Amino acid sequence: MKALEVRSISKMFPGNLANDNISFSVEKGEIFAIVGENGAGKSTLMNIIYGIYTPSGGDLLVNENEVKIRSVEDAIKLRMGMVHQEFMLIPRFTVTQNIVIGDEPHKGIFFDYGRAVREVRELSERVSLTVDATALAGDLPVGVQQRVEILKVLRRGAEILIFDEPTAVLTPEETVELFVTMRKLQTEGKTILFISHKLKEVMEIADRIAVLRRGKLQGIVNKKDTTEEELARMMVGRNVVLEIPKVDVEVGPVAFACHDLHVRNKRGYEAVKGMSFDVHGGEVVGIAGVQGNGQDELVNAMIGFSHPVSGSMELNGKNMRMVTTAQLRKEGMSYITEDRARRGLVMPYTIRENAVMGQHLARPFSKGIRMDYDKVGEFAEGKVKEYDIRPGDVYDTAGSLSGGNQQKLILARELSLPHNFLIASQPTRGLDVGATEFVYRKLLEEKKAGKAILLISLELSEILGLSDRILVMFEGRIVGETTPDKTTEEALGLLMLGVGNDKKVQS
Amino acid sequence: MSESNFTTKFLKAFGIDNKGRNRRDPLNIWVPLISVGLALIVGMIVIAASGRNPFRAYALLFGDSGLIPGGAAWRREFAELLIKSAMYIATGLSVALAFKGGLFNIGAEGQFWVGAIVATFFGYWAPVAHTFGAMYVALGSFGWIAQLLHGAICIIMGMLAGGAWAAVAGYLYVKRGVNIVIGTIMLNWIAWFLITSWLAIGPMTPPSQTFTSGTFYVADTAKLLRIMMPTRLNTSILLVLLAAYATWFLLYKTTVGYEIRAIGYTANIGMEAPRAQGINIGRRILQLMFFSGALAALGGSFFILGLQYQFPNTATMGYGWTGIGVALIGQSEPLGVVLAGLFIGALRTGATSMQIANIPKTFSNIIEGMAVGFIALQVAVRYYLVKILQRRRTRTDPPADQEAIA
């Protein structure tokens, strides 16, 4: 039986055909993956199915009946459920409160918390998704928070579950656990739509895979009959070099150095506990580590958002411990962030306004107090062409761009600032194959130009492919230093988890 | 590029770029218009419910508001409209500018009165007043130069003081994390009571006068010039239009404005993006509060130099509060604030004659409050507007099968 069928769905946005005549059907009990680059129309399609957008044309069928889904309520009534990429949990509520919110068991007019807890426990046992029903959602690790989201959707009786890039925020182990859960749901007869751009994961979990490119369906393939390479070709329309070429550059003088650096996080807890390292010109130093081991705090200190409590920090030989972001920028620091929406760009600003932020006080973008928006526009037009930012209208807001194009805009801005030290913090997070490749190419160009690069990443393939030296970070300390040719993903993975810390003594 | 083209330049002056496209959200215009329209309709219902004729009430309200030319008293009403509006526009600009930077300056009221009392002081203070008095006499037929200079000094000193008053709240916010709403509202009351319970009945009053007579009167040279005799219309409306242009220029043409808007757009997510680009957030917020306070104080100086000529004992609060409504209706855009200020000014002017016809003035307040209320509900208004527009779009472009049924 077909659980869901999409018949020639189209969605028109002003000046952009996000979905172009897409048709496919999903069998009951199937794990159906939808892959595509950022901006290929995956999220639009899911939002149509889940009632957030109304399609410009086409029909939807659920359980072989034609339906009109005008709102999320309609979708829920049709037993659909979406597990969002960014969780919508209330951190101060308990797991139970989060799961029952919107449909609470009650005794008269009073919320029956006891019964809610019992219901949640029963449900979590039945589907064997273990959660502590009375824990505060905010205290849980990301993987468990996702489990709470899944339980919330199941409690509403969902039969069709939509997972919107569920692994983007998970550690490798949590991903494995999620896949176990998905398989379990499948055996219970649930239908799963899995949206992703990580081909490895898709190949692992999906039964069938639909590939979208620029709003069009490129084809539907059985997992058995395809390979990662073929999927990548379908996604981007050409052969992608997933291997990163080796670039050898003569190492220059030290650009950035820190010694015995201690940094506190926002709560006053010491998150970086004495780190010492340096980055030379023409060198990529990779920092590998599981998220939450002090990387964020280290970056915050390096960009002047927080001051280290002790230790030294130098940029081009100048003491930079207690300085502002502006001073660091002036000394030649550039910064690519993974948090594009908060830290990278001003989303309601246009491409041209974003393109010069940081150098807007310099000529030719301003003279005295006056901004010269003509010059800003010319500059942005040039960068849009150079970096192939699409759609390339400099009057579009940054928020209207897809993630990959936003990252290109950030790269365009940061690399055009005068700099000799580049901090790249998870520069490919959430990006598709094409954009990832673009970022790698740019980073290697930077290296060739003799810039010092600090790469902080959770992706081991990225760390191994790009770095000249690798530092492994665990609980705020460097627990190992190695080079890509002397290590493997497995060995790094163990170090990252704090196994075999004695290696530090040997090196 | 065809930069020399006059049309291009003209369009650009109105924020329309050289590709001939204005990328501002069209709903920014429709939302306030619809809110005002809804407020007028609700106002009619309220008036009708009180057993009065809403059409007669509106005829009086708008007929005597100075908006519509004609009638014996039109010139006077028009003058009153502009005098009132100038003050509302000034405080409206003050609130709007702060909004653009993501700050809710609820203290325009206090800044208005600080500006007023300081302008009064420099208007009568002997060393200044005598200098310009002597200058006026010496210059003979060029005496207007002395008038211009004295007026300018009073206004500038008022604006500096109002700006500094607002900057106190900015400083507390930046350095001590005191919420800007709380900081500014506290300073309102401090300013108000410092002035009305001390300065205006103590050190700034003539010793021989009674307790209730207010401060010294400002010198003639400090008064704003009248520009439409015999009405009391003065240059305040021109000055406030200049201030509106300056605000627009600051926001959309200067580096400071560029940074302020970036801060405002990211205010609710921690302002990290501008900060990571090296923008000094604290300094900009301080400057922004200073400019904002100076604009409110400009309104205060109009109140003294154009209208009262002293700080009267009968002064009542309200100009700054009205500015919040003006900024909301004007969608925090300088041009919008000017239009909204004129609308509120018209309501207040017409209300007086409505009252004469035994229809309470309160009704115009109801309309005003409703307009602001609907603006505050603009998320909902926008939501339904978008829905209606979408429905119309699908209706004009029906799917083929529905057409067949029809």
TrEMBL record, chain A:
Membrane as UniProt keyword: no
InterPro entries recorded: AAA+_ATPase (IPR003593), ABC_carbohydrate_import_ATPase (IPR050107), ABC_transporter-like_ATP-bd (IPR003439), ABC_transporter-like_CS (IPR017871), P-loop_NTPase (IPR027417)
Record key words, sorted: ATP-binding, Nucleotide-binding
Domain ABC transporter: 4-239, 256-500
A Pfam family the protein falls into: ABC_tran
Molecular function as annotated in GO: ATP binding; ATP hydrolysis activity
Signal sequence, renumbered to the chain: none
Name of this chain's protein: ABC transporter ATP-binding protein
